[in-house]
Amino acid sequence: MKRTCFADDPCPIARSLDTIGDWWSLLIVREAFAGKTRFGEFQESLGVARNILTDRLKKLVLEGVLELVPAADGSAYREYRLTEKGRGLILVLTALSRWGGDCAEWKLVDGRTEQPVGLELRTKDGRKVGVKDVKLVLAGRASRSH
Description:
With 146 residues, this protein is an alpha+beta fold. It has helices at residues 12-20, 23-33, 39-46, 50-62, 84-87, 90-100, and strands at 66-70, 78-82, 121-122, 128-129. It is built from 6 helices and 4 strands, in the order H-H-H-H-E-E-H-H-E-E. A hairpin with a 7-residue loop joins strand 1 (66-70) and strand 2 (78-82).
């Protein structure tokens, strides 16, 4: 089945899914956050087929999530590094992790103190709200609370 392209969709969620909407792409980004930078490291840690990994890495570079840079050790290899756009996905990964449940292998910590950090929803004026307190409003459509 041919995949639908959402690159020109007015909804930012749809456009985002067009970039990172398959599980391999998000898992590659997760591994990049964990310090993986080379093709072989991604392949070993994920167990993904070479052709799939090649395709996803190319797309992530094309979309500006990763960039190819000279290897830090001065060798002829090139490494994949997260861009600013790619680092912005930490919120997505953290939300998915929180939604999916506890994981002993993955946690988000403050880079200076190593203290765990998390996500919370707040109104524009700073009031903390829960998931039962919010709703999604789509322009031109009726919204419902769940």
